[in-house]
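S1.2 Input.
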Amino acid sequence: MIESILKNIEVKINLADGGVTSGKLVSSSKGNIHVIGCSVEPTQIIHPLKGIEFKVGSIGTKSFLGFADALFWSFPVSSSYSNIRLYNLYDDQMLLNWILWKKSNTYGVILPIPTLNMIGRVKINNAGKNLYIKQENIIVNDMEQYISVKMYSGVAEETSGSRKCFILSMGIDPYRVIEDSFQEFKAIMNIKPKRIPPFADYIGWCSWNSFYKKVSAENVYKALDEFKTNKCPVKWLLIDDGWETEEKQQLTSLQVDKKKFPDGLKNFVKKIKNQYGIKYFGIWLPVTGHWKGLSPKIKSAKTYATVQTNRGNFLPPAKSGTFFNDIYSYFRQEGVDFIKVDNLNGLSEHFSFREPLGKVYRTILAQCSKNAEKYLGKNKIMACMNHTLEIMGNLKNCAIFRNSDDYYPENDYIKRTASHIIQNAFNSLWIGQFGVADYDMFFSSHITGELHPILRAVSGGPVYCTDHLGEHDFSILRKFIDKNGKLLKPDGMGLPARDCLFNRLDEYNRVIKIFNKYENTGILAVFNPNDMQKLNYTVKADDVEKIKGDKFIIWSHINKTYHLVTKKQKIKMGIDAFSAELFIIAPITNGLGIIGAVDKYISPAVVKEVKVNNKTLFLKVSAGNEFMLYCDKEIENVYVNNNRTTFKKSKNIIHVGDEKQIKVFCGND
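S1.3 Output.
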């Protein structure tokens, strides 16, 4: 199939004067990975928006999953219909960051490469006609899809030479095809493996939904007092929008607002670290200084020579390093450990039609990354509003990337929660290829119950709350952590299960399943985004990709029930409207299936050592009050932390150590 697609690719170059010329196709292959590009003749001035277009043609299927470029965020869209908010500066059609499709048992990926001054998008056409867009709805006819790849810079420019424009790959394993495609993308963009910053190993707190722009030192101390009183050891803190000195959404000073932080930032940071046990402190900063940039009045050691942009003022891209050097230098001397860099996609709003988009992103993000590393160290950036390949490919000193639109707990929370679940489930397929997918902050106490906590638990990413004062649910927060505030988390990133990949995403009439693993124990979260009706579904051990074993115990965290199953055996289940379930899928090895501490979300992560000697079971655990395992043989002795513990057996539950309140599950179903 891939040979026929490659054979039929055509490339045309749209010129600024309205003319069209054929381009010379250039390609290279590594196994199933094909890198497609073209050669452009000198003196050709390319159209700013139509640019270079590759007609890929029919992919022979109506089953696809794409990621729509809606300016600030990427929204997953599926074949048939997707009801999303569309906003794109450059085209009246839906443009996709990349696309996954399926035909029979084969999966394919098309992945544009931001090259030179250009950025790339995938376009889907039906029978030669573009998508029909009306208001906020995107409608795709239920028929075969015709694909093209578009490369454009946003300004008319003379360009020449050869360039790599997109990756085309196919295979029988969708997760492998996606991973291989992005590995090639990262090799082309010179992106090295990244170490996740240490603060992501702990639970955190953010000021945004707690106080919004009314954040102050006094309010933060009150929030931290609640954690201290309730002995919930939050270890990192992020001050979001509201700390800065600004006027009409333009930064007027590099210093904090002295009315809100009267003792200055340095003394504030020193106090929260010394008195409240905060190990890591972060602060919010738009990549443009503020939403509308830098005030012409702003001064540091020198006056900035700002220029007018489409939304305000900022330094010319080539001079942006001056600002990043000054602001990161200030943050370092004040005790800041990491930065939340926001408004990344806002660069297109500021500089569209003024400078080549590829150059804007490459130049400004290089300066942002370089100076953050100079003053704070490697990978001390949390990215936000980062959902395009030109951002993901150029923000290299970053290992934590926002995976979705903001968490909205207050207005239209039902619809927004459903959208939040879907965005995070599917965006992780590509955002997680560059580092850790950040599902955003959340309320631990909310009418949506455990939908948001379970979503964060399965993500494998950072976990941080943002409750109003007096509203924290510490029983929920403790489910994430050990006694030191360290997260009990999966080993990888949460991904949508295979049978969900091509769900119709406009109708909330199917469950969303997200899988992850801790070592070889499966973690499976199931969500019903429908607020009106109960949904039926099936669960099997095989929902967790590459899980090893033949026999498993599946434990339900919410319903407190279990099933003994073979690997492909399906269990029919039902889930109430607008609710979630979390399953631990433990392989039974040598007669033991270890669930772990069932009062924690990622229950097997508490297990540090298991030994069986004849009929004696030795356990070392790091957290939890209720420990459970399956055993197909009688156990006569149990040791907890090397201390023999008295116990009694009641049906299939062995009660171990009243003081420690640990239960060891043992016996046959």
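S1.4 Remarks. The first strand starts at residue 10 and ends at 14.
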